[in-house]
Amino acid sequence: MHANKPIAPYNADMADANAITPEKFAEVAQQIEAQVSSVIVGQRDVIRHTLIAIIAGNHVLLEGVPGLGKTSLVRAFADALSLRFVRIQFTPDLMPADIVGTDILEEQEGGKRGFRFQPGPIFANLILADEINRATPKTQSALLEAMQERTVSVLGRTYATSKPFFVLATQNPIEMEGTYPLPEAQLDRFMFKLNVRFPKVEELTAIIEQTTGDKASRAEKVADSSTLLALSQFARQVPAASHVTRFAAALVAATHPDGEGATEMVKKYVRYGASPRGAQALLLGGRVLALLNGRYNVAIEDLKALAPAALRHRVLLNFEGQAEGISTDAVIADVLSKLKVT
Fold this sequence. Notes:
The protein is of the alpha/beta class. The protein has two domains: 1-237, Rossmann fold (3-Layer(aba) Sandwich), CATH 3.40.50; 238-342, Helicase, Ruva Protein, domain 3 (Orthogonal Bundle). It contains 14 helices and eleven strands. Strands 2-5-8-1-9 form a five-stranded parallel beta sheet. 41% of the residues are buried.
């Protein structure tokens, strides 16, 4: 456990973006990160990138084999941020109404009967969509409106989701039987796609020691939803110079085979490049990362650090790229190494 002094979670001064300073932002964010790290051994990059996406108010897709602590990671963030957490296990028989809710017929005053909306689990703050690719496309699409619009529509009526609202989804990259790959439109709604890797021997030893004892490790509360919303609003105020914004645009354009700055690798192996949301993810994530690094301005290095997470699920390989086992990370690294912005 990290011996960090927790910050009072209901400090009214931190619930107002105008009262937050870069120093206070970094202090609160580092406390959140430290509390999650006290529960999750290793996975520092995954924790950092998930924190960036949550502060930015966006969603994350976590990919990794079972047993790597993806569920524990999401629960630790919920504990540290005092968010209402719900886990939805996606299965082939899961229906959209099981997620968003439905109208139920009940007896009302005076003996009359009427319909009342029964909210589904999606009306929580932090949703763990476990093994999201096991549900049918119809059920997966139930998340699409909520992720993009922060609303759900049921029988012609629209309901707003909770604030804040995040979807952290998981999928297994190995077992493909009985799965339904996420459509590109839904993948694009995730700010980051993070690869949760198998731990090193030292980390695995620490995990075994931590999880087989008689005391369960839980993250302590260091912030609340009001503080989180204030941090998000403050991060959006961080300036980005025109050359930094142009770098993000040029990077995304260079991932398209017919785009300006496309490398030979992109032209040979890529079918379609990243969408404008990729550039938005880079800039918004860069603002948060700059504050975490103690700066009040976005640097090109911030964008380079976030490029794999922000673009790997937005770059679609063609048949030749898939046949030769080319990874989207390799394509992005190739573009970064050769990109020149004037």
